[in-house]
Amino acid sequence: MTITTIEPMTGTAIYGPRPGVENILVTGGAGFIGSWMCQHLVLRYPEYNIICLDKISSVSSLNNIKYIQGRTNFRFVQGDLCDKEHLVHILKEYDIDSVIHFAAESSVQKSFSDPIAFVDMNVYGTLFLMEAMRIHGKITRFVHTSTDEVYGETWGVSVDEDTRMNPTNPYAASKAAAEMLIMAYQKSFNIPGIVLRCNNIYGPGQFPEKLIPKFTMLVNDSQKLTMQGNGSRTRSFIYVADVVAAYDAVLHNGMVGAAYNVSSSDEVSIRDVAIEILKAFGHDSQEEFENFIISAPDRPYNDNDYVVKGGKLKDLGWSQKVFFNEGLSKTVEWYRKHGDRWWEQQLGNTIVLHGSHHT
After folding, report:
1. Which one of 21, 142, 239, 260 has the fewest CB atoms closer than 10 angstroms to its CB?
2. Is 353 within a domain?
3. 93 shares its domain with 110
4. What sign results for the dihedral spanned by CA atoms 200, 204, 210, 212?
């Protein structure tokens, strides 16, 4: 089915433009966060040229960038991060000076069953990208997407960017390894890396393998919700428009060699996320909640929480503007309107579930 009505998706603030930034490559630009970033940059910064690179995997969609297709300052290129020669060609053809790197395998649940895929994409893919940038020799800003999960579980203690990384699952380990390579390439080859470690990101356009879109689409289709364990684990949820604003702040004002936590004040248990989604659909009673929930075995290892300090990013002028109730309302509304059609080719008429993916 053709998507005909699409609303623009942009961040909650802007911090540029910046001298020396003109031609920006966004990897994973047809995915969830990457497509929001592409739209934000194309619409908010008409002086920039945005090159969107994506291989179009099962979790990305051309629908995510349909709103900006045809804009004079936007180009879409299909390609794979592990094709170094193609990456070099793209960097040279479009005279790229800045790179924002979103492309990744990001499902913690899948990382337990296929960890090699996460090393291939998140470690080797990042390495090939930096090798291409080294050969190109013209990159002035490289913003890399990491995760709060590199710290491991924090047990309620808020950690800052200097805290030692202690990943507990293959996804988090692959992200930590990529960060180590970025640090080394900055020191060895002057690749100007900056890292963002985000709390759990949610919002319109996220493929429904993740908790909030998946539960929303299941309830919308009157299906049961599968919850790993008892649902007591908590995650700090941050709305995607605020995340895009954080990337804007770091692209324009961040310090090369630094890492920045993108933190949320909204720490919510998985059980409470399910309850709030059910309430959004008019299911208010405890009996209705229990009828919708199916318990499943927990992950091989499931971190209790990830609580991070965000003061360093706030020093750049960033602040959280969309809080959980508002963000969830916007997200549920979007999935009720677009969810069944957005990934029709990937999903068909069903959502295949393997437990409640917290991240």
Report:
1. 21
2. no
3. yes
4. positive
